[in-house]
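Q: Structure tokens for this one, please.
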Amino acid sequence: MLLCYAREHHLGRHQVCSGKAQVLVHVVSALFDINPNMTTHMPVHLWKKCVATLLDILALLEEQPHISLDEHFDGGDEERTGASPVLTF
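A: Here is the predicted structure, written as tokens:
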């Protein structure tokens, strides 16, 4: 679906990979939000999905070294013309 959208809007591979990484980071966040009680463990099926998603993120970052994650970056990609995409979380 993401690739279809990219083709329709003439986005490059780097933008698609950056968007995919953003989506995966939000999936991990959502998996932690699903857990109703933070004082208990996460159900095993959710934990396995979380780990699998984190491994997907790591593989994507390894394949696409131009993408980086930064916890403290405040600006958007628009402010970084010509620079590598930085994903915040």
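A few notes: The chain is about 55% helix and 5% strand. The first helix runs from residue 2 to 8.
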